[in-house]
Specification:
10 helices, five-stranded antiparallel β-sheet, 18 strands, 385 residues, five-stranded mixed β-sheet, alpha+beta
Length: 385
């Protein structure tokens, strides 16, 4: 790969060489990460990599610093542990982001977890050919955590009338094309179209026309409004209400979405102890869903010991960044150092993302953005997305 090429997504079987070794991305459909997965990821990161683990803006995990001679061993361990498929083409189809609090969100219209599982099965079993790099889908339960800031070829957003149906929004469109009752079937058709045309959905629509794509996906003609679900503008960290008043959801964030193997292994018994569903979020944070309120003080204390932010007023929660010069050959600047400097300045009034070069990898939509120039100086600009 040329040093300054963007637009390619690595996986477990198709890793990427970076400035700190090889990078393996573990796709976690819906962001679910049980304690057993935490232990396996920590073990693989410490045995085969540098121990550094990234939480990504698509609620996945990345292992950094893997040496080329142990790439096969690292991949085999993850595949044997059920965290990746043995076929890279099939594994790429598992790029599905869901509402992190789904099933535990008082405002959610439906539990999206079964829908994510159904879409994953249909895509892995049914798609012929390979989808383009960065292909992905979003399943939004219509609750308190909008996913408009997550790039997707197809976005399914729950809608409840007499029964739950799903608005279908295609990449590049602001408004839905219509409603479907069976999102898994529509997802399979969409993925097959992208595979056959070897391009992402916005280009498929440009080629075939929106009406033809909408009919292929089985969307019902209806008055489709522009969904007023703005991406999160503030911090997602802290306590969130649960349908059960005896429970709550707690979102914690490591600085810039990065942990080490020791922290990941320490999180596993914490998750076991509070019997929570644990999910990664597109905000590079970790959601503990369905925690008994009586157990919150102990959970907060344990997460504080590990250095995770649990207070929405903490200025660190307003910052995100690419890995920067500490792990990327393309970087012009040290994003970690700049983020630490900004966190010590007057409190930030809005979320801020730092990119170490104009590629702007992983930059969230709708967030103030500083990009490093070749001089290493960060400039306030609007990136090309």
């Amino acid at each position: 790969m040329p040093d300054r090429t963007r637009g390619w997504c690595p996986g477990v079987l198709d890793p990427m060489e970076t400035g700190d070794g090889w990078l393996l991305r573990i796709r976690l459909p819906g962001g679910t990460v049980p304690s057993s997965a935490m232990r396996l990821v920590a073990d693989v990161a410490s045995r085969f990599g540098s121990g550094a683990i990234d939480l990504t803006s698509r609620a996945n995990l990345q292992l950094r610093g893997v040496a080329v001679e142990v790439l096969d061993a690292a991949a085999s361990a993850l595949i044997d542990g059920g965290l990746a498929l043995a076929d890279a083409r099939s594994d790429a189809l598992r790029a599905i982001v869901a509402s992190p609090l789904t099933g535990h969100d008082r405002a959610g219209l439906v539990d999206a977890s079964p829908v994510v599982a159904a879409i994953e099965r249909r895509l892995v079993d049914g798609v012929v050919g390979s989808v383009p790099s960065k292909f992905g889908m979003v399943v939004d339960d219509g609750g308190s955590w909008p996913l408009n800031g997550v790039d997707a070829d197809v976005r399914f957003t729950a809608h409840r009338d007499r029964a739950v149906a799903w608005w279908v929004t295609l990449r590049g469109d602001a408004a839905p094309t219509g409603l479907v009752a069976d999102p898994a079937s529509a997802a399979l058709t969409a993925a097959q179209l992208c595979a056959e045309h070897r391009t992402r959905m916005d280009a498929v629509v440009a080629d075939l026309g929106r009406e033809i794509v909408a009919r292929a996906l089985g969307t019902a003609r209806c008055s489709a409004p522009q969904l007023d679900r703005q991406a999160l503008s503030g911090s997602s960290v802290g306590l969130h209400p649960h349908p059960d008043p005896a429970k709550c959801n707690l979102v914690a964030a490591p600085f810039l979405g990065r942990v080490d193997a020791a922290t990941m292994i320490a999180l596993a018994p914490i998750a076991d102890g509070c019997a929570a569903d644990v999910r990664l979020t597109p905000e590079r944070s970790i959601a503990f869903c369905g925690v008994l309120r009586s157990e919150v003080p102990d959970l907060l204390a344990a997460l504080n010991v590990l250095g995770l932010c649990v207070d929405a007023d903490d200025p660190l929660t307003m910052l995100s960044a690419c890995v920067g010069s500490r792990g990327c050959r393309s970087a012009y600047a040290d994003t970690w150092a700049e983020a630490a400097r900004l966190a010590g300045s007057p409190p930030l009034a809005e979320r801020l993302h730092l990119s170490a070069c104009p590629k702007a990898c992983g930059a969230p939509v709708g967030v103030r953005h500083l990009i490093a120039a070749e001089t290493g100086v960060f400039q306030d600009v609007v990136p090309a997305r």
